[in-house]
Specification:
Helices cover 5% and strands 6% of the residues. It is mostly loops and 401 residues long. It has 2 domains: 100 residues, no CATH class; 251 residues, no CATH class.
């Protein structure tokens, strides 16, 4: 009988963990203090000890990798579309959503979309989606942006009109308020958005507004007009917004503004979406919002707009997809499980040898250190023997060659 030092293939690398337990991604028998005895050695050992092949794996621990890996949305992320609030965008009217400021609509305030309002996407507006994320709009929802795309800002965000942007109100836009609230827009005021406004979503999911359109969010909600942009309010125009104002939208577009809404348009603002989300709207794709679809912004949604205007969604923002909206993964999005991924179980799970004769180290291997003492030629054998006992194997150092 002679002792045989077990060896491992030369193409396998070894690492020494810092926590004292070797979490490796190789198939091993066990772990000694410094390295892993790999599966080739174990196969060689089992060929001489066939009785060890019948060891079983605990029935309460299973590791399965389905061939058709699916990606699911966690149950705590939802998009909710309440039925009693609708947001619509007429052809030449922009609708803004507050970001870090909550906007409450009194129960007696309704916003409706006239039947003749359409939104079209201009051919010069492009939105790209990174290959790993796709958002699909349901077939019954279409959104179109007109050639005069408008950039909207939340109620507490100031929008500054760039030097080449004029603010005018078309003659066909009327705002109607109850008898105790009068909002009059002179016929010579129009709102015009330059036709060169484009929205681009780079690979890292950012929405950029051209250099002549910017959005800023000052904390004190101010309205700023560039020095070369004039806004004229006729002397006979009065705007009154009582706390419980009800606003009715006539057949041809009405616009209501909360009492604390200010709009400013700085000169260079970009809007950035979180890095892992993108929306693609091809030139020929239209999205229409049906009359029964409403969009609400939770009160805890915060939007940060620094000088370069970035929008950040907090981790507690819930997004719910309505029942008639489907989210699909494009065919070019794949989820791959790397071949070296290891699955570990808590330290109180027993370590066993699977029935295929190779120890798939999907469990955390427990190794008891050899007591510290003077180095002897048999130290390695002692460590291997200790490890063998962990697996209920006979001593690995007594194998006869």
């Amino acid at each position: 009988m002679s002792y045989q030092h077990l060896t491992t293939p030369t193409d396998v690398s070894f690492t020494t963990p810092t926590d004292g337990i070797c979490h490796d991604t190789y198939r091993c028998i066990c772990h000694d203090t410094y390295r892993c005895i790999c599966h080739d050695t174990y196969r060689w050992y089992l060929s001489r000890h066939p009785q060890m092949v019948s060891v079983t794996t605990p029935t309460d621990v299973s590791v399965t990798t389905p061939t058709d890996v699916s990606v699911t949305t966690p149950t705590d992320v939802s998009v909710t579309t309440p039925t009693d609030v609708s947001v619509t965008t007429p052809t030449d009217v922009s609708v803004t959503t507050p970001t870090d400021v909550s906007v409450t609509t009194p129960t007696d305030v309704s916003v409706t979309t006239p039947t003749d309002v359409s939104v079209t996407t201009p051919t010069d507006v492009s939105v790209t989606t990174p290959t790993d994320v796709s958002v699909t709009t349901p077939t019954d929802v279409s959104v179109t942006t007109p050639t005069d795309v408008s950039v909207t800002t939340p109620t507490d965000v100031s929008v500054t009109t760039p030097t080449d942007v004029s603010v005018t109100t078309p003659t066909d836009v009327s705002v109607t308020t109850p008898t105790d609230v009068s909002v009059t827009t002179p016929t010579d005021v129009s709102v015009t958005t330059p036709t060169d406004v484009s929205v681009t979503t780079p690979t890292d999911v950012s929405v950029t507004t051209p250099t002549d359109v910017s959005v800023t969010t000052p904390t004190d909600v101010s309205v700023t007009t560039p020095t070369d942009v004039s806004v004229t309010t006729p002397t006979d125009v009065s705007v009154t917004t009582p706390t419980d104002v009800s606003v009715t939208t006539p057949t041809d577009v009405s616009v209501t503004t909360p009492t604390d809404v200010s709009v400013t348009t700085p000169t260079d603002v970009s809007v950035t979406t979180p890095t892992d989300v993108s929306v693609t709207t091809p030139t020929d794709v239209s999205v229409t919002t049906p009359t029964d679809v409403s969009v609400t912004t939770p009160t805890d949604v915060s939007v940060t707009t620094p000088t370069d205007v970035s929008v950040t969604t907090p981790t507690d923002v819930s997004v719910t997809t309505p029942t008639d909206v489907s989210v699909t993964t494009p065919t070019d999005v794949s989820v791959t499980t790397p071949t070296d991924v290891s699955v570990t179980t808590p330290t109180d799970v027993s370590v066993t040898t699977p029935t295929d004769g190779i120890c798939h180290d999907t469990y955390r291997c427990i190794f008891h250190r050899v007591p510290t003492r003077a180095a002897l030629p048999s130290d390695k054998e002692n460590m291997l023997s200790k490890c063998a006992r962990t697996y209920s194997l006979p001593s690995l150092t007594t194998v006869v060659i």
